[in-house]
Write a structure and sequence with these properties.
Layout: H1 2-10, H2 21-26, E1 33-34, E2 36-37, H3 38-41, H4 45-60, E3 63-68, E4 74-76, H5 81-88, H6 96-110, E5 112-119, E6 125-131, E7 136-140, E8 146-151, E9 157-161, E10 165-169, H7 181-184, H8 186-205, E11 211-214, H9 221-235, E12 252-255, H10 265-280, H11 295-324, E13 332-336, H12 339-342, H13 346-358, H14 364-370, H15 383-389
Antiparallel strand pairs: 1-2, 3-4, 3-13, 5-6, 5-10, 7-8, 8-9, 11-12
């Protein structure tokens, strides 16, 4: 059998390995499903908010293409096809920010984000096509490479190989296919979902009268109907708020309230928000949970988010582009510029710029470039710096 496999491989045929990592990733409780599907998990507002704030933030970050010269200096490669793609869009149907948002959100929810690398007839990079992970089956070939069988939803399948796709992964168990953090903490996610279901059931079916009228005797049907109609006409609704209630015949009124707080429902749901934020490493203020927030720590939360949430994902994207898009051994690299998130308040930022200029680390035109401004008219730097700025 090994001889036949070797002969088939030489002819261009490759065989699936016995263990298909994709099916393990798609099994209930792992990968695309985490007790509940990733799409269903987005019904949890905190899951949706966490994935959205990470994905949209990464999509909004400037993407810069650099090439290193022989001395190791980096020069921005404005003429590279990827630089054009980041400006004009990955295809006619999708912009660069939308593409990054889709790719990252899929990875956060399913553990994997996939996109086909498009090239023209000359082999030049021309764009990317996002592929929903639910339409992909992964096979490990006899050569050890991965193959991605992509369905178009109409019964047709085509195969893509490594080098033809960008495959962004969350942490993996087998080194091949990512596993979603929703599945790793399936019990936590299920607990938050259960508290939401209980809250909905409580609101839909729970009986919570505002008060009780007691009568020492027994009302007949007509008296009961008359009392109900009188209460409805004189005391229900906003227009009747505050009207004096008059009772006779020995009737008494006692206020009654069954609140979600009494059932500790609200506290449970608040804790669920914090639990989901832990899974995605998102500070709660960024998903509109201000229960422990102050003006000071909200600013700190933004920088914390950039350093410990966005920076690792940006590095994953940069490494995947270096591995899959740029030629092996090339001096090209993609950089997602996080400096805008890390600048801090204007006073601190400009104080840092002044220190950099006074110590000779930066010149004024370089500071202007950092701030997104053109060089000052009539002021020229040396040739190397001018080339880098232009």
């Amino acid at each position: 059998m090994k001889l036949l496999d070797a002969m088939a491989a030489r002819l261009g045929y490759e065989k699936r390995s016995g263990a298909d990592p994709s099916w393990a990733a798609l099994a209930p409780g792992i990968g695309y499903h985490a007790g509940l599907s990733a799409r269903a998990a987005e019904n949890l507002s905190t899951v949706l908010a966490c994935t959205t704030v990470i994905a949209t933030s990464l999509g909004s970050i400037p993407a810069l293409i650099y090439q290193r010269d022989g001395a190791g200096n980096r020069i921005e490669a404005l003429g590279h096809p990827l630089a054009r793609i980041t400006r004009d869009g990955v295809s006619e149907a999708m912009s660069w920010p939308d593409f990054i948002e889709h790719l990252v959100a899929s990875t956060l929810l399913t553990g994997n984000g996939l996109a086909e690398i498009l090239r023209d007839s000359a082999g030049q990079l021309s764009g990317f096509r996002y592929i929903p992970w639910g339409m992909v089956t992964v096979a490990e070939l006899a050569s050890g490479r991965l193959a991605y069988d992509v369905s178009d939803g109409r019964g047709h399948r085509r195969r893509l190989l490594q080098g033809e796709v960008i495959h962004l992964r969350d942490r993996t168990d087998d080194g091949l296919v990512g596993r979603s953090r929703l599945s790793r903490a399936a019990e936590t996610v299920a607990g938050v979902q259960s508290s939401n279901q209980f809250a909905n059931s409580f609101l839909d079916r729970g009986m919570a009268p505002s008060g009780v009228i007691s009568y020492p005797g027994t009302l007949n049907d007509d008296q009961r109907i008359h009392l109900r109609e009188q209460m409805a006409s004189r005391h229900e609704g906003a227009r009747n708020a505050g009207r004096t209630l008059v009772l006779d015949g020995g009737m008494t009124w006692a206020a009654s309230q069954i609140s979600p707080e009494d059932a500790e429902l609200l506290e449970t749901r608040k804790f669920g928000v914090e639990e989901i934020c832990r899974l995605f490493q998102v500070p709660p203020p960024l998903v509109q949970d201000y229960s422990h927030n102050t003006f000071t720590n909200s600013e700190t939360a933004g920088r914390w988010f950039a350093m410990f949430t966005l920076a690792p994902w940006a590095r994953k994207l940069e490494a995947e582009y270096a591995r899959s898009v740029f030629p092996a051994g090339s001096a090209l690299e993609l950089e997602l510029d996080l400096s805008g998130f890390l600048r801090g308040d204007p006073q601190t930022r400009w104080a840092a710029h002044k220190i950099a200029i006074d110590t000779g680390v930066l010149d004024p035109d370089e500071v202007r470039q950092i701030e997104g401004w053109n060089p000052r008219a009539g002021v020229r730097s040396d040739d190397g710096k001018e080339a880098a700025i232009s």
